[in-house]
Amino acid sequence: MVRSTTQIRRVPDPSRRSAGRSKTSTTFDVTILLIVVALVAGLGFGFSQAIRQWAATSLGFGWVPVGALGVAALLTLRYRPKLLAGYWRWWILAAVLVAIVVGALSYFRGPNGMLAAVSLGGRWGREIGGGYLPLGILRAVALILLAPLVLYPKRVGNLYLLVLNRLFRALKITSKYVGLKVYLSANYVARRIWPILDYRHLRRRLRRLSFRLLPVGAREGYSAAEEAPLGTSDEAGLDDLLQQADVSDGVFSDSVFSDTEDVEAEPAKNDAKPAKAVAFNAAKSKWKLPPLDLLMAAQPRTIPQTPLLQMAKLIESTLADHGVMVEVKDIKAGPRVVRFGLVPGWRQRRGPAGKEDAGEGTKIKVNSILDREKDLALALKTPDLRIEAPVPGEALVGLEVPSPTPAQVALRSLMDIPEFRKISSNGGLPIALGEDTGGNPVVTDLASLPHLLIAGATGSGKSVCLNSIVASLLFTKPPDQLRIVMVDPKRVELTPFNGIPHLISPVIVDVDEVNPALRALIAEMLRRYKLMEDVATRNIAGYNAKTKEPMPYLVLIVDELADLMMTGGFEMEQNLVRLAQLGRAVGIHLVLATQRPSVNVVTGLLKANVPARVAFAVASQVDSRVILDTVGAEKLLGKGDMLLLNNDSPKPRRVQGALVYDEEIDRVVEFWLQQKGPPLPVISLEEPPDLPDDQDEVDDRILDSARELALRNPRLSTSFLERRLRIGVQKATQVMEVLEEEGLAIPNY
């Protein structure tokens, strides 16, 4: 006999829940009413005189703002209790303002009575205000400045740094050394204090502590919860793990009370596959590289084959209806694009009577496939088609169609492959770019490119690409092997990297400071050439192999090249071109990005010295030709879809860029901020000293050319002389002064 069991589940009754809730509210109202009745009764009986005297001498008129805040808090607790927890920072700010008001009342006395003996703010107000007006003002200012800093450390802290920077410039401090020391000291203190005050970092440390206190059996699930996608609840999962794990039988780790702060999860035991390393090896360096656990793990990706086969049949039938016989021989599905490999077929011969001949016929031309692009787009119901004819290295015509099941490319999946580790172990500068149309990872060595130009419209994925490049370098190179100079005129993309030890100086946000920094990099480049000449080496790898003091790589990253070219003019282009021409041998590499790929920004001389280029989605074929010297970038999908052109392929290669979140960048930056290593060699970005008088003088040839221009047009300008004579700003100013003294040029007042 089989016994069947039925599990009965109780469904909560909404009416009971509302009844319980109303009962709790009634109890709260009755309690408040009893407190008010007790206070009124106390005022009416023998305690009235003592209560009035205590109230007058303790706070005086300060009871008005304190009572208003208390009544507001009680009403909020009664009717909207969630507002107390959701806007707790605003309640703290309101309490600070009430304290400032009470302290200000303590400096005023009543005409007579008890308030004349103390103050309008009472004894408590005197304690808050200090009893001395300058001291009270200082306390009020300190509360006004420190309260927002404690509540919003990152946002308000960056604002304070910006104000201090502007203040130093407005005051025009005569001693650059003193000003720089004060700025760096304030920046150092801010970078050490604000992460402690930032509640996100405090929360992360509490989570690490809870991880240490977990039993060993529950750590695997907790590590999986740590790698959950962004947007999931952090608290959900920890209570479940504690309930599932038997704490009484668990064995606690020995590192619970250790001094180290970073805890690495134990790798799972698997006899078939060896455990992967969690961090790259920084050979001959005392700095510790960040582990890959700081990045999110790649989500499993499944590609259904049925829709792809249906699309292949639809492509063949659509072209056959127009007399173009093709056969889909190859299907490669990437993250966001599917590439169909088309093989042209044969057109049957027609006999005299219109019947098909038994012969093989003529081969279908490739141009006939290209002419049917719009018909294919109509049949596949998508305007985003791109035809590559032929595919490099294959006898196929590539038809690239948006994938019906798009997916994202995680940065961690690209960095955890043998090719990436091989570049890192060989001493190169590995950068992870993404995956191609076949789903193959695309990684390259920046040292072999040797420079990279990134261009595309707004929102196409340039900033994410820059973040993935910087993250790749930070994961593989310690600061004694790589130093970085960042230029960010927009002030929002690269400024989160401020404070990491790789930076030679804080991120340059003022365009006027870029040219002096470039001249300092040129001086550093010439110094390195002199050192290499002394030891008879040809590149930085040979120099580092022979000397005991190796030279680190230098990488210049510019977020918006258009702003620099507009303000710096020819001198900016001249400095960038010189660094691109001569910087490779001494380990100086450029990564330039712009959202306006025009011929005025991406000049021909600059393109000739930057062979590796990345083109994101652009608006027209003209912009695509400026970047890649060919069309195709105007048909990209955006959001990381790019065309990569380098020395490895004669044609641009389509790649889906890696996605790195801001939270991942914050974790990497925090790792480097908390690490203290040995002192680094000083590389100065200060402008090199002026040349001697005999080298700084304007030669006669330039003056003769300027005189001829002035005779034809007396109203000259320094910018006109820069363009026509191809000289810098300083030399153009000197030439203009000479022409004005000779009376050949009319001054522009």
Please name the defining characteristics of this protein.
single chain; 749 residues; alpha/beta; Threonyl-tRNA Synthetase, Chain A, domain 2; Rossmann fold; 4 domains; 9-stranded mixed β-sheet; 4-stranded antiparallel β-sheet; disordered N terminus
Précis, in short:
Helix content is 48%, strand content 10%. It is an alpha/beta fold.
Task: Provide structural commentary.
This protein has 749 residues and is an alpha/beta fold. It has four domains: 174 residues, no CATH class; 82 residues, Threonyl-tRNA Synthetase, Chain A, domain 2, CATH 3.30.980.40; 228 residues, Rossmann fold, CATH 3.40.50.300; 50 residues. It contains 29 helices and 15 strands. It has a nine-stranded mixed beta sheet. The protein has a four-stranded antiparallel beta sheet with strand order 1-2-6-5. A two-stranded antiparallel ribbon has the order 3-4. The radius of gyration is 35 Å and the shape is globular. The protein starts with 13 loop residues before the first helix and ends in a 7-residue tail after the last helix. The N terminus is likely disordered.
Mean pLDDT: 77
For the largest beta-sheet, the strand count, sense and barrel status come to: 9 strands, mixed
CATH A-level architecture of the largest domain: 3-Layer(aba) Sandwich
Stretches where pLDDT falls below 50 for ≥5 residues? 1-12, 14-21, 211-278, 691-696
The third-level CATH topology of the largest domain is: Rossmann fold
Within the largest sheet, what's the order of strands?
8-7-15-14-13-9-12-11-10
| Portion in helices | 40-55%
